[in-house]
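The instructor's notes for this session suggest beginning with a concrete chain rather than abstract definitions. Hand out the sequence below and ask the class to guess, before any prediction is shown, which regions might be ordered.
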Amino acid sequence: MTSESTRKLSGWWASIRTVLLVVGVLILAQGIRKLLFWLGWRLAQPGPDGWAWEALSILSFLLTGTILWLVLRPAGRDLGLDWGTMQRIGRASVLAGGALLLALLISSALLDSSLLLANLHSVLVVPLFEEAIFRGWGWSRLERSLSGRLAGFLTYLVVTGLFALWHLGYGDVVYLRGLGSQTADPPLRVILFYKVLAGGAVGLLAGFARWRTGKLYWPFLLHGFWNMFGR
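After discussion, reveal the predicted structure:
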C-alpha cells in the first residue's frame, strides 16, 4: 500500500471515528433527556394538555444541555459562535432576525398568554439545544475530520441525516402524552415518521445556512421561525 493510500485510509478512519463519537454523544443526550423527562413525568403526572408538559420538557432540555456543556466544554468557535469574525452586514442581519423572532414571541404571548411556555419551548429552547449539538459542536467535529473540497458538503449530508433520525428519540414524549388522550390519535410509528420528515426538512434548511455561512446564528433563527409557524 502506498503512502498516499495509507494517508487516505487513515483520514477516512478518523472521519468514521468522529461520526461514531457524534452518534454516541447524541445517544447519550437523548438518554439523559429521556431519563429526566420520565422522572419529571412520574413526579408531576401531567394531563395530556397544559403548561406542565412544556415546563417539564423545557427543564429536561436545559438540564441535559448543562450536563453536555460541562462534559464537552465546547469553545465558541466549536459552536460556530465566533461573533468577531462576522462582517458588519452579517451581524446586522442576525440582530434583525433575532429582534423579529423576539417580537413574534412577545406578540403571541400578548394575544394568548397560554402560548408563552409553548413558544418558549419550541421556538427558543429546542432550537438552541438542537442547533448547538448538531450544527454547532457536531458539525465542527465532523468538518475538521474531513479534508478536501467536499468536506463541508459531506458534513452537511451526515449532520442532516443524523438530525432527521434524532427525532425518533422523541417517541417517549409522544407516547406518554398519548396515554392520557381519549381521542383516536395516529399510531406512534406514523407520528414519528412525520417527525423524521419534518426534522429532515429543517435540517436541510438550517444545515445549508451553516454550510454557507460557517456560523450557527442563521441556523438557529431558521429553526426558530420554522417552529413558530410550522408546528
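Then share the key points. The chain has eight helices and no strands. The chain has a mean pLDDT of 89.
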